[in-house]
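Service request form, structural biology core

Requester: graduate student, group of Dr. S.
Request type: structure prediction, single chain
Budget code: on file
Notes: please return the result as structure tokens.

Sequence provided:
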Amino acid sequence: MSLHSRQTPGFAYQGGMLFVTARARSLAAALLLGVLAACARPKPPTVTPTVARVVAVSSRGVDLEVTLAVHNPNDFALAARAVDGTLYLDGQTKLGTGQARPSASIPAKGSAELRSQLQVAWESLPTLQKYLGREQVPYSFRGNVSLGGEALEVTLPFELQGTLTRAQLLQAGLRGLFEPAQ
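Core staff response, request fulfilled:
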């Protein structure tokens, strides 16, 4: 069988030379685009803080329930790995830090509500004294949420705000005076 008479799909022989047909070039281009699309970089998820609720106040600290709305634009699910942050009174006085390890999944190309309960331990109860005369004290919880999946590990910041009442602060302060440290 001579080289001139041989038939190979997608290729043509002419004058002893091998040529790629237009159809084979189109298929190769489509395959290359498919490979490039599969290797596209993952997109960062978006995190929208929705609620920070004071669950309890004690001599040890504040228990906060933090709720975040997370949207995942990727073709793979993400797992919530950690939520952590610092509680501030009046936007400036650092009261303490807390961390939680939620077990939630954010579906591929979907959204989920991520709830975490954190205990923020007081770093210094005497810090509360200057706020005991106020009826309400604004607080902010500045934190981070860590998310991960097949091809993505990301930590995103968020901030939630609310108020602590004078009664809650007094309760924490008085318990701090009478409860033994643990």
